[in-house]
Each structure stands twice: as structure tokens, then as C-alpha cells.
Design a protein that fits this description.
- By secondary structure, this protein is of the alpha/beta class.
- The strands form two sheets. A five-stranded parallel β-sheet has the order 7-6-5-8-9, with helices on one face. It has a four-stranded parallel β-sheet with strand order 2-1-3-4.
- α1 packs across α10 and α3 packs across α10.
- The mean pLDDT is about 95.
- It folds into two domains: about 150 residues, 3-Layer(aba) Sandwich (Rossmann fold), CATH 3.40.50; about 160 residues, Aspartate/ornithine carbamoyltransferase (Rossmann fold, 3-Layer(aba) Sandwich), CATH 3.40.50.1370.
- The protein binds phosphoric acid mono(formamide)ester (CP).
- Phosphoric acid mono(formamide)ester (CP) binds next to α3.
Length: about 325
């Protein structure tokens, strides 16, 4: 897909689920992001989104998603409004999500929504006159995180096909895992899964991976993983999703990566994590040459600039 086709494909488009993206869509965003990557020299960004307004509506805590979207919009000359404290808005008076979205859509050009309810972003998009970007809906999906994850994998390994990727941690509640695993099925990859029995991948997704012929190993500890993996995608246990706090206590210390535990994989291994980390990745892993999780977080601005520009930018009129 060339640049003009990419702008046509994304113009005014909501981003709800990684499942909605075909391979060409994913590659179009990753290719567009190269333009906004600050690596390799000083970067003067053109005010490509001057006069455009981004609204960030966050019903759950966030550091990276909200601030990187805001940074992306500001770097492109646009403006931002929104909230990170929903109890200080009219939601606390009982306003419905549909009504609030309908109103906010009349104040802005694009909305990023994070919400604890699965399906909230799709529901919001049905009430919105402007594109809605899913910033995470419960345990379901986090598709813009997936775009920056793919960008980081491709940038750090040089490819997306031919990789062995292992997901480690909370595979049950981790929305970044669900989105990224779905997106990776567009490529020639083998997916392995590491985590406690009670936090295994949802059946639907596991069956999808298996039906695609991409299922590698499913193990309980990183020590059981084959040594030839290329990418290890670690996640924290999603404490906030557990209906019973006792269930969280049972698994909270079930796994922990250390520098020593990674030695047998060699220095070419790339280690990603959507962050925040709690204690599942020891600080000494930061010294591993393949630890790219802070670069991954930085790529969030780059990729979200590309996405906002594809959806809203002047090129979209091409
Ligand atoms: N990766 C991610 O979604 O981080 P935040 O929760 O800080 O936005």
C-alpha cells in the first residue's frame, strides 16, 4: 500500500480491535511511522495536524497510552483535551457512555477511550461522529499498543516473518497479549505461551492460534521454553481484573525474569513489555542488550503520530 492508499484506507477510521486489521493495514501504519521516528538525528515535525483536536477519555489509569497520544498530537501541531479522572466528570452523575461520547465528539476530531468494560470502544464508536481509538477496553483489546509493539519488533529484529515469539505472564487478562497475538497471525510466526495454569490464554484465541498452525509450546515457566525464541513479550499480572483478590495472591509471584534466567537464550533475544512492570522483570534485565521495553514505550509517540496523521491528516484528502 503506498502513502496515498494508506491515507485513503485510514481516513476517518476508528481503531477498535487488532482483529479488524489486515496485514496490509498493519504494514501501512508501520511504514508511515518511519517518517516520525526521531532516531537518526534531530527531527523537526511539521504542524500536520494544526487545528485538529484530540480528546482523551480515560476511565482507567494510564501513563504511556494517554501521554503518548497527547505528545503525538502536540508534536504534530494539534491540541488536546480530556480527562483521566472520570469521577470529576458527569459520569459520576450517571451519564451514559453513549451520551457522553456523542457530546465529546462534537468538541473534537478524534477520541481515545480507555474503559474497564470489554466492548466499550466499539459501543462508543457507534455513538460518535468522529473516529474512536481504543486505548484499552477491559481484558479485551489494546490495538494501538499492538501497532507500537509490531513497530518495535520489526525495528529491533529487522523482520516480522520467520519469528518465534513467546508471550509470558497474564495471558488470560492481558489485553496487550490478546491484541498482539491476533495481529501476529498475519505473519509467518510461531507463538508460544508461558504462564500459570490459571492465567492461560482464552480458549477462543488459543484455538485461533492452533487452527492457524502457529502454536508453539505452552509451559508454566520460562525455564521450560525452547532456547531458539527470538522475542519474549512479558506482561504483569493484571491485578485489577481479578474478581477474587485471593486468586491474585495465589499467582502474584508465579514468575519473574532475571538477567540470569535469560542467559541461555543468548544476546540476540529481544525482550518486550508493554509496561508498567511490577516485579515480574528484575531491574538487572534492563542491562540485557535485547531489553527494548523503554524503546518500545518511546515508539508509542512515533507510531501514534503516524496513526493520527493517517486518520486525520491532510494526506487523507489525497
Ligand atoms: N502500555 C500501556 O498501556 O501503558 P499505560 O497503562 O501506562 O497506558
Amino acid at each position: 500500500m503506498d502513502v496515498t492508499e494508506a491515507h485513503r484506507a485510514f481516513r476517518g477510521r476508528s481503531v477498535i480491535s487488532a482483529e479488524d486489521f489486515h496485514k496490509e493495514d498493519l504494514l501501512a501504519v508501520l511504514d508511515a511511522a518511519r517518517r516520525f521516528d526521531p532516531e537518526g538525528g534531530s527531527h523537526q515535525y511539521e504542524p500536520l495536524l494544526q487545528g485538529r483536536i484530540l480528546a482523551t477519555l480515560f476511565h482507567e489509569p494510564s501513563t504511556r497510552t494517554r501521554l503518548s497520544f497527547e505528545a503525538a498530537m502536540l508534536r504534530l501541531g494539534g491540541q488536546v483535551l480530556g480527562f483521566a479522572e472520570p469521577h470529576q466528570t458527569s459520569f459520576s452523575k450517571g451519564e451514559s457512555l453513549a451520551d457522553a461520547i456523542r457530546v465529546v465528539a462534537s468538541y473534537c476530531d478524534v477520541i481515545v477511550l480507555r474503559h474497564p468494560m470489554e466492548g466499550a470502544a466499539r459501543l462508543a464508536s457507534e455513538s460518535s461522529e468522529v473516529p474512536v481509538l481504543n486505548g484499552g477496553d477491559g481484558s479485551n483489546q489494546h490495538p494501538t499498543q499492538t501497532l507500537l509493539d509490531l513497530y518495535t519488533i520489526r525495528k529491533s529484529t529487522g523482520r516480522l516473518d520467520g519469528l518465534k515469539v513467546a508471550f509470558m505472564g497474564d495471558l488470560r487478562y492481558g489485553r496487550t497479549v490478546h491484541s498482539l497475538a491476533n495481529a501476529l497471525l498475519n505473519f509467518d510466526v510461531q507463538l508460544s505461551f508461558v504462564g500459570p495454569e490459571s492465567l492461560r490464554l482464552p480458549d477462543v484465541l488459543r484455538q485461533r492460534v492452533e487452527a492457524a498452525g502457529r502454536l508453539g509450546s505452552e509451559v508454566s515457566s520460562v525455564e521450560e521454553l525452547d532456547e531458539d525464541i527470538d522475542v519474549l513479550y512479558a506482561t504483569r499480572i493484571q491485578k485489577e481484573r481479578f474478581p477474587d483478590p485471593l486468586d491474585y495472591e495465589r499467582v502474584r509471584s508465579a514468575y519473574r525474569l532475571t538477567r540470569a534466567s535469560l542467559d541461555r537464550f543468548g544476546d540476540d533475544l529481544k525482550i518486550l513489555h508493554p509496561l508498567p512492570r511490577v516485579d515480574e522483570v528484575a531491574m538487572d534485565v534492563d542491562l540485557h542488550p535485547g531489553a527494548v521495553y523503554f524503546e518500545q514505550a518511546r515508539n508509542g509517540v512515533t507510531v501514534r503520530m503516524a496513526l493520527l496523521h493517517l486518520i486525520l491528516g491532510e494526506g487523507a484528502d489525497a
